[in-house]
Structure formats: C-alpha cells, structure tokens
Amino acid sequence: WEQSRQAIETLTAEDTERWQREVTAQMIRIAEFMAAGTPVADPAVQAEIDAHYQSVCRFWTPDATAYKGLAQTYVDDPQFRRNFDKIAEGLAAYQREAMVAYADTRLS
Fold this sequence. Notes:
Structural class: mainly alpha
Number of helices: 6
Number of domains: 1
Strand content: under 5%
Order of helices and strands: HHHHHH
Radius of gyration: 14 Å
C-alpha cells in the first residue's frame, strides 16, 4: 500500500483527471466487447486488460493472485461495482472474468 500511496501523491490534478478519463474510456471499450458478446479470452479483450494491468502497475505490481483479488473487488465492493455498472450493467463481472483469464495466462 505504501508504494501505491506514494505513487498517488505524485499525481497532479491534471494527471488525476487524465488518468480518470483514460480509465473511463477503457471501461467503455470493454463494455463494447461485452455488448458484442466477445469472449473474455478474445485477443482484443485481453489487449484491453493488458492495458488495464499496465495502468495498475503505475501504482503497484500485482501477481496473479493479487490481480484476481482486484478483479473480485470490482464485483464485491459496492462503489466499484456501481462505477462499472454505470457504464454497462454487468461490466464489473465481465471485467473480472477477463482479468482472471489474463492472470491465468499472463501472470501465472
């Protein structure tokens, strides 16, 4: 947590705004895959999840278990889930499944 806290403290207001826009845009792209019925293991979905992983690594570097834990948090934490589901109902669960597939194939 200390590494993450230190990384966050270095962000300017502009950095934070840019990061939030990037996260929202990525959520929209993933929601589009979900709406199209694209399997979570599809290379295009996994490319978006790789971008997500790289973004997370700006703050901390999760191993497969930790990344799966983060994925589950997106579903279990009401605030996270609401943020995902504002974009598209079911997005938190779809992203969780995509992150688990990523962790199983890229981080294990």
